[in-house]
Design goal:
The protein is built from 14 helices and 21 strands. It is of the alpha/beta class. The chain has three domains: 2-40 and 96-148 and 270-337, FAD/NAD(P)-binding domain, CATH 3.50.50.60; 158-268, FAD/NAD(P)-binding domain (3-Layer(bba) Sandwich); 366-473, FAD/NAD-linked reductase, C-terminal dimerisation domain (Enolase-like, domain 1).
């Protein structure tokens, strides 16, 4: 048994854990990361990077086909093998060796193996060869282990070996047909990808696609999927089985059946905290970890345990997890020298933007870019609001960007303060419009001041002028 001591122990070497360790190390702490899989985590190898690598080729093809003159030059189908090979390049063929020099250069140690808490500021790591390495933290332990796909308790589902998002993004052979259970981001993006790759896709979404967003977002993605040949249906699976021909057969509560070569489950996430040793510090293994704005886990005596990223269930998005990681690494280092340090809102030591000001992009066709509150959520939160809508296709820059451009923009305004609470863009390539909206929402920039932020002509950013004009003068 080997025993080592550090200032900070980080469980999980995904982008969240890397940021915690990096920021703490830059502030002078000696840090170690524990990882049982690949350094870089789900985002690099099974989520953000491979999914966007799969989605970009059909998006680029579609972009050309939307512009006269370029349209005529794009006449063939996607080269599926080339798409998959490009994906393999971006995930380094699931080899993390290229990530290791960064850790070494940053001065962060790595212990490979399965780590679990074994008491106050103590972690035991079982390595691949069975050796146990005991790590002691002088100041803190940060749990950054992420989340796993949730497999719902549908009779027969487990018996047909369903795909999760990991299987979909690492696909080697595209199935002839794919049934997707769920209606969230994974469902929308993977339906978009596999339709483009040639699968016959059926999406089974109980409440419709993207039901938590503005209604026009889900409607637009559903319309496009159907026009591309996919089936999008409402319903809840009540039984799953495998037919004599080998197909999966999904029975719905409506009595309908959906056959498919493969089924993908996209119904939510579950915390990766099972068998993490949380019971050794008074918590329950398998639970989400509740944290304050400084990412300190609540209910742990001494305040030495932190949790950042998916595992705390605040926002299950990589960029927000990295944001939390930066805050956690900074506050852990600050408290190492001044234990009573407080995390003030909107300072470096707090994750203040993890409730009403979260940006997100769904790389479906069309893209959906959102930040802040929807109209319904703002009303439910008690704000006095006004909703401003505008046809994005009517903006000069959009018409130049693509022939017959279709899109929509919505701004939700807090009437009492004259600031934007939320913005949603739907349309081709709207992802690049999002950060301006994020600055407006997070910075609570008065609309009277935004009036003087003049958008360049002719760009799609002119949508801001049209939204503000509509707010000022009406339709």
């Amino acid at each position: 048994m080997t025993e080592l001591q550090y200032d900070l122990i980080v469980l999980g070497a995904g982008p969240v854990g890397e940021n915690v360790a990096d920021y703490a190390t830059k502030a002078g702490l000696k840090c170690v990361i524990v990882e049982n899989e690949l350094v870089g985590g789900d985002c690099s190898f099974w989520a953000c990077i491979p999914s966007k690598a799969l989605l970009r080729p059909p998006s680029a093809r579609d972009a050309a086909q939307r512009v006269g003159g370029a349209r005529e030059a794009v006449t063939g189908p996607l080269d599926v093998s080339a798409v998959l090979a490009r994906r393999d390049y971006f995930v380094s063929d699931w080899d993390d060796s290229s990530s290791l020099p960064w850790l070494e250069g940053a001065g962060i140690d790595l212990v490979r193996g399965r780590g679990r808490l074994a008491g106050v500021r103590r972690v035991e790591v079982t390595t691949g060869n069975g050796e146990v390495v005991v790590l002691e933290a002088r100041h803190a332990v940060a749990v950054c282990t992420g989340s796993d796909a949730l497999i719902p308790n549908i009779p027969g589902l487990a018996d047909v070996d369903p795909w999760t998002s990991r299987d979909a993004t690492s696909v080697k052979d595209v199935p002839a047909s794919l049934a997707i259970i769920g209606g969230g981001v994974v469902a929308a993006e993977m339906a978009t990808a596999f339709v483009a790759l040639g699968s016959e896709v059926t999406v089974i979404a109980r409440s419709g696609l993207l039901s938590g967003l503005e209604e026009f977002a889900g409607d637009a993605v559903t319309k496009r999927l159907r026009s591309d040949g996919a089936t999008v249906m409402h319903g809840s699976p009540v039984n799953v089985s495998r037919s004599g021909t080998g197909d999966v057969v999904i029975e719905l509560d409506s009595g309908e059946t959906v056959p498919a070569s493969q089924v993908l489950v996209a119904t939510g996430r579950t915390p990766r905290t099972k068998d993490l040793g949380l019971d050794s510090v008074g918590l329950t293994d398998g639970d989400w970890l509740s944290v304050d704005d400084s990412l300190r886990v609540q209910g742990v005596e001494g305040g030495w345990l932190y949790a950042a990223g998916d595992v705390n269930h605040r926002v299950l998005l990589t960029h927000q997890g990295k944001y939390q990681g930066r805050a956690a690494g900074t506050v852990i280092a600050a408290r190492a020298t001044a234990p009573e340090t407080e995390a003030e809102p909107w300072g470096d030591l707090a994750a203040s933007a993890d409730s009403e000001r979260v940006p997100s992009v769904i790389f479906s066709e069309p893209q959906v870019a959102t930040v802040g509150l929807t109209a319904a959520a703002a009303t439910q939160a008690g704000y006095r609001t006004r909703v401003v809508d505008y046809d994005l296709g009517a903006v000069s820059g959009a018409g130049l960007h693509a022939d017959d451009y279709e899109g929509h923009a919505r701004m939700v305004v807090d009437e009492d303060r004259g600031v934007a609470l939320g913005v949603t863009f739907v349309g081709a390539d709207v992802a690049e419009l999002l950060h301006a909206a994020t600055i407006a929402v997070v910075g609570e920039v008065p609309l009277s001041r935004l009036w003087h932020a003049v958008p360049a002509f002719p760009t799609m950013s002119e949508i801001w002028l049209r939204l503000l004009e509509t707010y000022r003068f009406g339709e």
